[in-house]
Amino acid sequence: MIVVCTECSQKISDKALFCPHCGYPIKSYEVKVDGKTFVAAGNRNVIVMTPDFTTGNVVGTVTTIAGLADNGKGLFYTKYVVTESGTSMNLFTVIGEICNADGGIGGGQVVNPETPTTKVYLASGKSVITMDETGTHYFVTSITSAVDFETKTTQVGAISVRYNTYVEAVYAATLKPVLTDGGTYFIDNDNIVVS
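User: That's the sequence. What structure does it adopt?
Assistant: Structure tokens below.
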């Protein structure tokens, strides 16, 4: 879907994390659905289908991830559809309603978008493969510290990209480098790359 950049008013994809025309960053949000965490640009549309039990109709509302998060709103839902690319959310449709971020009505689930991401710069993309304590996730981890993109000086430490299998991590580290020299990344509070 095409939306308008709030900085330069040019048309951009609703999947863009930056405007390709002026470079303006589109605010990213973390969205947790059924225990899985997705990253979504703030301009990502959310389609909310709310049954009206009085009329028997369904009322459709379109909002954005930023529209929910910046207004202290969440989603109460009984069913949902998410399409994804890795950890990025491409489509989010729910049967439910918009509610206050502290909860919904009944026994469904509430989704509250958060903004924990930090943009960082990695001067050297050299990396190693590591494993978590439980052996359930593998990481391609930079051997040098990344720098906060805004301050240009604050060291944030090594950053990592998470994989579910050792084979995926080895493939990423050798055939398709994911941490590249001079790369910029968005990371969460655990220094895991989210986009």
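The first helix runs from residue 65 to 69.
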